[in-house]
Automatic annotation (TrEMBL):
<feature type="active site" description="Proton acceptor">
    <location>
        <position position="299"/>
    </location>
</feature>
<keyword id="KW-0460">Magnesium</keyword>
<keyword id="KW-0547">Nucleotide-binding</keyword>
<comment type="pathway">
    <text>Purine metabolism; AMP biosynthesis via salvage pathway; AMP from adenosine: step 1/1.</text>
</comment>
<dbReference type="InterPro" id="IPR029056">
    <property type="entry name" value="Ribokinase-like"/>
</dbReference>
<dbReference type="GO" id="GO:0005829">
    <property type="term" value="C:cytosol"/>
</dbReference>
<dbReference type="GO" id="GO:0004001">
    <property type="term" value="F:adenosine kinase activity"/>
</dbReference>
<comment type="subunit">
    <text>Monomer.</text>
</comment>
<keyword id="KW-0067">ATP-binding</keyword>
<dbReference type="Pfam" id="PF00294">
    <property type="entry name" value="PfkB"/>
</dbReference>
<dbReference type="GO" id="GO:0005654">
    <property type="term" value="C:nucleoplasm"/>
</dbReference>
<dbReference type="GO" id="GO:0005524">
    <property type="term" value="F:ATP binding"/>
</dbReference>
<dbReference type="GO" id="GO:0044209">
    <property type="term" value="P:AMP salvage"/>
</dbReference>
<keyword id="KW-0539">Nucleus</keyword>
<keyword id="KW-0808">Transferase</keyword>
<comment type="function">
    <text>ATP dependent phosphorylation of adenosine and other related nucleoside analogs to monophosphate derivatives.</text>
</comment>
<dbReference type="GO" id="GO:0006167">
    <property type="term" value="P:AMP biosynthetic process"/>
</dbReference>
């Protein structure tokens, strides 16, 4: 990074979750009626998973939560602390301390809302070979309320930011907060970025997603998420490029800044869709022996992208840094990094 950035230039909201990650046999998934690449919210029947992982499967504890992951990665690449501010809700417990420690170590400026009597959220990361299945128990994260953003010091942080990023996952928690941040971004003509996050968001939370979408300048997603959105909209074509074009053409509050869609497809090229144009950005394939796990790849992609976007870099540079960051965390457990960032523009 060359010049110094404004502190708090980027604000994000999401679910702060501690990931409990372990390699499990296939019948572990079957026992809980889960599939190899799920991303679901825990129901009552899933609650024993977390204890079982800790007791029987040498589980690792890793800082997680989609937006927090992305902002930690952005901070790592920027090498200047407190560029990014994160809001989310945690309990008052050991897990919250671990999350805060990891976030701060990355340079992220966290402003958690704290709910005393509710445990900090966790996400089971069930690894079977090269697949990973996620089961999030939001717990405290689900208790985020808009009054946290209305506290004067937090409101000032939101007002002073220049860029805003919220996950689709947060739609299950507090749409009014999303709409408030979106409206602030709109009033100040500042970019508002969102993520489709998981197929279940389009399947079950389409109404709040559609309410936020007119404010969204850049929408991120992977193949499965884009397909789920298209299906929920009953669009005829399953072609990713077509889906992207339709997505960017949907209603937008600020038509002077047309929406952009950025769709990742694993080791296949990233698609950048703007109006009628689709550009491809190749991904450098990793050899099998270099891959530790792909958990957090999508989040890291966004983190790398944001690290350049807040510096006003071109979309081309932003996407290449996204691919760099994703490639790096794939070589590390969960959404973690090692050493100094080595991205060159
Ligand atoms: P998870 O879904 O695992 O992370 P992700 O960031 O979405 O990563 P994926 O591996 O699913 O990647 P993707 O499919 O999005 O992207 P793609 O494969 O296209 O979730 C992790 C976190 O989610 C956890 O920490 C958890 O806490 C959190 N979470 C779960 N539920 C939540 C909830 N309800 N609320 C909040 N948080 C929640 O790849 C993206 C890029 O990676 C590519 O463009 C490329 O650059 C790179 N890449 C991918 N594969 C390869 C490859 N083989 N070789 C080289 N590069 C590759
Ligand atoms: Na990883």
């Amino acid at each position: 990074m060359t010049s110094t950035l404004q502190e708090g230039i980027l604000v994000g909201c999401g679910n702060p979750l501690l990931d409990i990650s372990a390699v499990v046999p296939l019948n572990f998934l079957q026992k809980y009626s889960m599939n190899e690449d799920d991303a679901i919210l825990a129901e009552d029947r899933h609650m024993p998973i977390y204890g079982e992982l800790v007791e029987g499967y040498q589980a690792e504890f890793l800082a997680g939560g989609s937006v927090q992951n992305s902002l930690r990665i952005a901070q790592w690449i920027l090498r200047q602390p407190r560029v990014a501010v994160f809001f989310g809700c945690v309990g008052e417990d050991r897990y919250a301390n671990i999350l805060k420690e990891k976030a701060q170590a990355a340079g992220l400026d966290v402003h958690y809302q704290v709910k005393k009597d509710v445990p900090t959220g966790t996400c089971a990361v069930l690894i079977t070979g090269t697949h990973r299945s996620l089961c999030a128990n939001l717990a405290a994260a689900n208790n985020f309320t808009i009054d946290h953003l209305e506290e004067p010091s937090n409101k000032a942080l939101v007002d002073n930011a220049q860029y805003y990023y919220i996950s689709g996952f947060f739609l299950t928690v507090n749409p009014p907060s999303i709409m408030q941040v979106a409206a602030t971004a709109h009033a100040k003509q500042r970019p508002f970025l969102m993520n489709l996050s998981a197929p279940f968001i389009s399947q079950f939370y389409m109404a709040p997603l559609l309410a936020a979408l007119p404010y969204v300048d850049i929408i991120f997603g992977n193949e499965a998420e884009a397909q789920a959105f298209a299906e929920a909209q009953q669009w005829p074509s399953g072609d990713l490029r077509e889906i992207g074009k339709r997505l960017v053409a949907m209603e937008k509050k600020n038509p002077t800044r047309p929406r952009i869609a950025i769709l990742t497809q694993g080791c296949d090229p990233v698609l950048l869709i703007q109006q009628d144009s689709v550009q491809e950005f190749p991904v450098t394939k990793l050899a099998v022996h270099e891959i530790v796990d792909t958990n957090g790849a999508g989040d890291a992609f966004v983190g790398g992208f944001l690290s350049q976007f807040v510096q006003g870099k071109s979309l081309d540079v932003c996407i290449r840094c996204g691919n760099y960051a994703a490639g790096h965390i794939i070589k590390n457990p969960g959404c973690t990094y090692s050493g100094e960032p080595e991205f060159v523009e």
